UniProtKB/TrEMBL annotation:
The lineage of its organism: Bacteria, Pseudomonadati, Bacteroidota, Sphingobacteriia, Sphingobacteriales. Keywords: DNA-binding, Phosphoprotein, Transcription, Transcription regulation. InterPro entries: CheY-like_superfamily, NreC/VraR/RcsB-like_REC, Sig_transdc_resp-reg_C-effctor, Sig_transdc_resp-reg_receiver, Tscrpt_reg_LuxR_C, WalR-like. Pfam families: GerE, Response_reg. This is Response regulator transcription factor.
Amino acid sequence: MINNLPGFSILFEAGNGEELTRKISPKNKPEIVLLDINMPVMDGIETAKWLRTNYPDVCVIVLSMFEDAEKVLAMVKLGVKGYLLKDAEPAEFETALKRVAEGEVYYPDFVTKHLINNFNEAAANVKLNNRELEFLRLAGTELTYKEIADQMCVSVRTVDGYRDQLFEKLQIKSRVGLVLYAIKNKMIEL
């Protein structure tokens, strides 16, 4: 099927990840690897890790029968650019190949749902202590960090510590991001 798609051809096939590691080289390197998760010897997850370390510019599209959240999320975290079920229609297959070849990603709806659910669960699992919550509420005002420190009866350095802890815990990079997080999670009302 791939050889019939304009602009695509098969460079080589491998029965498992270990065989892939023997066949791939800087001179024999595909742009895209279609990767099964369930393989003997070296499975798809280990192979994706190996590719990310040794050939980070090779794009990976997972071709699998698994659509359970754990496997999907593991592969997405490893940087795969696409995910297809083995029973995907040829047109979907072609779309995925074209998008990934153009530098985009291709995730069907079930992958997007897993990503959203995982993100929401991660956000719900973040526990903030009372001082972090107080700082977060005050960060949503026009107070400077010095004024926040005075109001909380702590040093500016302590306030900087609260801010940095929240940046790390919430994976946020700015005060604006903190305020948006607080509004979204109903910690601050407009």
